[in-house]
Amino acid sequence: FHLAGIRLAPKEKVEIPVLFKPAEMKIYKTQVVIHVMRDNGENWPYKVTADSNTDLIRNVTVAENGETQGILWIYPIHGMPEAPQQKSVVIRCQARQRLEQRVELLLFGVMPSETALPDAGNSATVSTDESSNTPEVTDGSSATLEFLYELQYQSDEIRSQLESLVGMQLLQKEWDTESRIVTLIFNVVFAPSKPMRNGATLVIQCTTGGLWKFPLVFIATEPEVDDVINIVAVGLNKESIVGFKLTSQTR
Fold first, then answer.
1. Chain-centre distance for alpha carbon 197
2. For the CFAP47-like immunoglobulin-like domain, which residue ranges apply (predicted)?
């Protein structure tokens, strides 16, 4: 869209509406360019020459006499489509036990890419390096698909409770070219030390565009009983004492 002829008084504000309605799961790029000129049609006396700063030349429009006719503000906009939030995946384990569970997540509408993009953060990439643990596309396609994933927590308190108890590793990636559905298989490790119920969100981003969010619920149930303590009474109205040791797992 194009907005023209907007007059602003000094210190006045104007809102620039930006609408994003993606048709596919890919990155969309555009720019918002704001061109400001004087209301009376006069130019600013500053003249742009060949020796002027490069950024300055790029951000002004110049009249025939070399004076500054207008000033440009250029705002790059990157649109990242986000899929509807999926159903929660429940990870359940008894406290003081260790659970390893494979979780399959389906990503719909993935767009293929013919060239590799730079890695960032935790990523799963197509690789020919034998020492790499990153999975390859299993259907033999030559297109390169890369995914970044991150486990996000609702608060710092939940992060402090779960971060050291949860581990995730991407084991396998399968791509169906006809349906454009990518299946990511994760190995989730959960080793709770006490009963709890906390949530997190697995955020997956494809480097060709698209964002998927999968809610995870981590439930730790009551642990097994450590031992049974029997106290034998020595008589009525007399105390019986038994001792046992408790060891703290933390300082």
1. 22
2. 82-221
Predicted TM-score of the model (pTM) = 0.69
- How do residues 75-93 score in pLDDT, each as one tens digit? 999 999 999 988 999 999 9
32, 75 Cβ separation under 8 angstroms? yes
DSSP state of 160: H
Q: How far apart are alpha carbons 207 and 119 in whole angstroms?
A: 9
Closest CA to 136 of 122, 146, 148: 146
First to last CA, the chain: 62
Which DSSP string do the residues of 176-194 spell out, in sequence order?
Answer: ETTTTEEEEEEEEEE--SS
Which domains does the chain possess? 1-80 (no CATH), 89-111+145-221 (2.60.40.2310)
pLDDT over threshold 50, residue 122 = no
Nearest to 185 by CA among 108, 110, 101, 126: 101
The three-state (H, E, C) secondary structure of 56-112, written as one string? HHHCEEECCCCEEEEEEEEEEEEECCECCCCCCEEEEEECCCCEEEEEEEEEECECC
Tell me how far apart the alpha carbons of residues 123 and 206 are, in angstroms, rounded to a whole number: 10
**Which residues, at least 6 apart from 59, have a Cβ–Cβ distance to it below 8 Å?**
71, 72, 73, 74
Return the sign of the alpha-carbon dihedral for residues 43, 46, 52, 55: negative
Cα–Cα distance, 135 to 185 (Å, whole number): 10
SS3 at position 170: strand
Judge whether 198 and 88 are in contact, CB under 8 Å: no
